Structure formats: structure tokens, C-alpha cells
Amino acid sequence: MIDYSKMTLGVIVGNRDFFPDRLVGEGRQDILEVLSELGINVVILDEETTKLGAVETWENAKKCADLFKRRADRIDGILVTLPNFGDEKGVADTIRLAGLNVPVLIQAYPDELDKLFVERRRDAFCGKISVCNNLYQYGIPYTLTRMHTVHPKTDSFKQDLRDFLGVCRVVNHLRNARLGAIGARPNAFNTTRYSEKLLQASGISVSTIDLSEIFGRANKLADSDTRVRQSWERIGAYIDTRLVPSEAVVKQAKLAVVIDEWMQDLDIVASAIQCWTSLQSNYGVNVCTIMSMMSESMMPSACEVDVTGVASMYALQLARLSPSALVDWNNNYGDDPDKCILFHCGNWAKSFLGNEARMYNAPILGTSIGIENTYGTVEGKTPAGPFSYARITTDDRNGQIKTYVGDGAFLDDPVETFGSRAVVQVAGLQKLMQYVCRNGFEHHAAMTNTYTASILNEAFTTYFGWETYYHRV
């Protein structure tokens, strides 16, 4: 499993020689202290290699770029810090020569009104504009701090850094993601059509396997197989199974073994499974619990072979290192225009359901194929808290990938129904639903219980170049 939490930034300290050296020395130390505080590893020029360990000349740029190239396998993003005006060419040349193709964050120090004399004057407010102008000319995408100038030791900049790490994770891992499609798209669900070629153009690969292969391998496993017993124990430790026949749990354990081994063999990080209705009709269980367990362990899984849905889940997960889930925008909530009910049969990670989570069956499916064939759902309601949503789709008619993102809130408002469910509030929900419907998006969205919309908006627009609607009212 990938460890997404260990992050390293390459740091470029900008300088212009006619500004005071002390500002650069102080700024370099400030940045290193903040990065250490946040547990971020650093690749930076030492103070012996260039003057003050900063970059301002072509020779400095070559030395810094060479350092970055030697550590390329470790560097997740580049932080440019401007304690003074900085040298815009030196910064741009370093990034171009390094050729890392990672996100770039630009930070500039603020001046103090009582220190605008020669010994303490920075002019980084102006210098940041020049650096960005050069990066734009070079075709290098970059991220800005919320405030044009900000001191590294402020809470504002520390939040900028945390968000930037999220952008780095989304960009670096999503553009190299290997997704798994298990089974064929259910015939009734045209909504989960997608273009593998458009995904591949953004670096996202899809590997496929037929359900017959999964069933065949699972049916060859003996109940006494050590892998099956261990899988069965993990399921029991994960969720209350007392309402489910033991044979249904064993069947799920076998599926888990087969799916896990297939994903490991191909280095697949997320999966989309044909759950409706081949699994129930031909194997006799729902696979929801296995999907829930994978999503909880940061290997998201979506139903109905919704590959772009699980890509959306993966992006949300990367933004804040928090589990994600696939949901239906499912029901209005009375007459409140800003509330609705999110629902699925029961594949949500347990993080969304707290102590209420239990394994049960799928009543809707059961009406047509028999309740006894639908055991394996995860049932529960999401408690109040933060809520973010996202959707990636391939717009084949226009040959592009497009997305929408936004934030809202989970509510404790009651809802009497089955499956995995939540009541949410989104300011301007009617406007959002108008956008979703008019632009041909799916009924599925991905969600997480952290705020991530601004991170995804930055990653999708700045670094992927995707058309993105950021819903804000």
C-alpha cells in the first residue's frame, strides 16, 4: 500500500543581490522551521553551494536544478520562497532545468510599514508578480498562497502549505493512477459509461477483469484456506455480522481474497465493481462490505463499474488523506431547497457511519432476486460534520474531462430508511443540480467528511487543465 503521508518539497530561496543578505538568511531559516514543524522533508541548496543557499544567477539555477534532479524520486512539489524581490529568471530557470513536472507554490514575504528603509526593505510583493510572469512565459503551472504576501510562520501560510501538500498528492498520484474495472458495466446503467482513452491522456490507466474470472477463482477456494479464514476474521473485526448468515460472510471473504490478489498483482490503487446484479444472481451475495473495507483502508472502491466515480473518490481521498465514498444524489429532504439525502445500498467506508454500522441485506435488490442473495451491505447513517463532494467525468461528445467540486455539511436530521445514507446541506443546491443536469453529469458523486473542494479545484484546473465547476454561493 502506498504511504501518502511522507512528503518532500524542493525549496528555492529567491534572492537579489542588492537587497540585504540578512533577509535571505532569516527567510531561509523561517521556512525550514515551518517545514520541520509540519513534518515535511526538504531538499534545498546548502549555504556553501551558493550564497546563502539561495538562487539568483544562471549558475545558481543549474546547481539547484541538478540537486532536484538527483532527488527527483523524492520530491512531491516545489516551494519558492521570496524573502525579498528575488530573481525571477533564476527561479524559472531552476524549475525548467529540473524538469520535475510537480506542483509549484509561490510564497512572498510581506513588508512592514515601519521597515521600508534600505536595510529591511523586501519588495517581495512586486517580486512575486515577476516570478509568476516568468513561470507563465515558461509554461510552468503554479499555485498561489491565499494572501499575496504572507509570513511563513503565520497560520495562514501553514494552511496554504497543508493544502498544497494535498494538491501535490492529487496531482502526482492521480496522474499515475492504475484503476481496476471488475466486470462489465451493468446494461441498464448508461450513466457509468466512460472513455478509457481520455483518462489515459491524463495518465490514468484502467485494467479490467471479467466477473467470471473472479467467481471462478473464488469458487476454487476452500472454506478452510488460510487466506479465507484470515479474510473472514478481518470482516468480523470490521463490522457486526450477526444479522447475516455465516455462509454469506464466507463467500465475501473469498471474494476479498481474489480481488485483493488481483489488485496487488497489477498495482491497482482503486477499483470499480459490477455489483448490480450479476454478483447477487450468480454468486449470491453483495460485495458492499468488501468495498467498504477497501475504501476505509485507502483503496477506494465504487459500484456499478463507475470508473470515473472511483477516480473521483481517489482524488478526494488524496486531498486530505481521508476515506471517500460513492453516493447517489438520491432524494429531496422535504421542502428545504438546500438539503437532500445521499444514499447507496451500503458500500460506504465505516468512517462515514460510526458505531451504527452493521452488515445487512439490500431490500430493493431483494424484491427481484431474493433477499437471501443480497447479504453483505453496510448499513448506517452519517453523523453531522464537514462534507465535500466531487465528480470527474469523461465528456466524449466534446473530447474532454470535466469535473465539479464543492463543500457542504452532513446533518443530524433524521431519515428513516435502509442502506448507507446521509442528510446533507449545500448552499445553492438547486443551482448545483441545474449544473449537474445541464452538463450531463452522472447521478453518482464522490464524497468525503473533510473540506477538500479548494484543493481539488486547484489540482484539476491548474495542473490537469480540466474544465472544473467550483460550486460556491
Walk me through the structure:
- The chain starts with 7 loop residues before the first strand and ends with a strand.
- It folds into two domains: 8-174, Rossmann fold; 178-471, 3-Layer(aba) Sandwich (L-fucose Isomerase, Chain A, domain 2), CATH 3.40.275.10.
- With 473 residues, the chain is an alpha/beta fold.
- Helix 3 links the parallel strand 3 and strand 4 (104-108).
- The strands form three sheets. Strands 10-11-16-15-14-17 form a six-stranded antiparallel barrel, surrounded by four helices. Strands 2-1-3-4-5 form a five-stranded parallel β-sheet, sandwiched between helices.
- The protein contains 15 helices and 18 strands.
Number of domain modules: 2
CATH topology of the largest domain: L-fucose Isomerase, Chain A, domain 2
CATH architecture of the largest domain: 3-Layer(aba) Sandwich
The side-by-side strand order for the widest beta sheet comes to 10-11-16-15-14-17
Number of helices: 15
Provide the residue-averaged pLDDT: 96
* Strand runs, count: 18
| CA gyration radius, whole angstroms | 25 Å
Q: Determine the strand fraction and express it as a percent band.
A: 15-25%
